[in-house]
Every structure is written in structure tokens, then in C-alpha cells.
Design brief:
112 residues, two-stranded antiparallel ribbon, 5 helices, 49% helix, globular
């Protein structure tokens, strides 16, 4: 049986969180290679993984994350997943911001 803490950890540590962190990291690597000190990842950002084009990320494409961030909809899972991504990147020394250009979806701004 899960304790409440274990249940929350299992819910937040998900494939979505891992994919989000990985796609952000791949964009950071690409930005570093070009001499840039920041990167923004939008729902239309193109990331190449093993020759395959990936557009956006799970969180930048899903309006539920924006609604949770703006607290227009209570969604503890989405809030926890976003915080997990922020924590992962912050522990690595990055400055992480969530923003929006359309009032419906988040985008990530990462700087170093």
C-alpha cells in the first residue's frame, strides 16, 4: 500500500515529467552549441531526436498546464509535474520561468 507521500511522488515522477525535462535539456544543448545563454521552448518548438522531429513538449501543448499554473483550474498533478521540472532544472543551476504568449499554453524560458 502507498503512503500519501509515496503516492504523490509516484504520480508526479511520470513519463510526462521525464519527457519534458529531456526535451528541454536537448534544446539547452543545442543553444549552448550556438553560444546562446538562454532558450525558450514553445508548443511549436522543433526538437530533433534520433532523426525524428518532435514539435512542442507535453506541457507546452496541453492547455491544462497553463490553467493549473494560473490556478484557473485545480490540477494538483499538473502543478506537481511542472514543479518537478522546475526543481530538476533549478538543481542544475538554470533559471526557469513559465510564461505564455496566448493565455492558453505555457512556454518555458530557461537561462544560464
Amino acid at each position: 500500500m502507498f503512503t500519501a507521500t509515496n503516492a504523490r511522488t509516484q504520480s508526479i515522477t511520470s513519463a510526462t515529467t521525464e519527457v519534458e525535462s529531456t526535451l528541454i535539456n536537448l534544446n539547452i544543448i543545442q543553444a549552448v552549441a550556438t553560444g546562446t545563454t538562454s532558450v525558450s521552448i514553445y508548443g511549436n518548438t522543433h526538437t530533433i531526436v534520433n532523426g525524428n522531429l518532435i514539435v512542442g513538449t507535453p506541457m507546452t501543448l496541453d492547455a491544462n498546464y497553463y490553467a493549473s499554473w494560473q490556478t484557473t483550474t485545480a490540477n494538483n498533478l499538473a502543478s506537481g509535474q511542472m514543479q518537478s521540472v522546475i526543481d530538476i532544472l533549478s538543481k542544475l543551476g538554470y533559471t526557469v520561468s513559465r510564461k505564455s504568449t496566448d493565455g492558453q499554453h505555457i512556454y518555458w524560458q530557461i537561462s544560464w
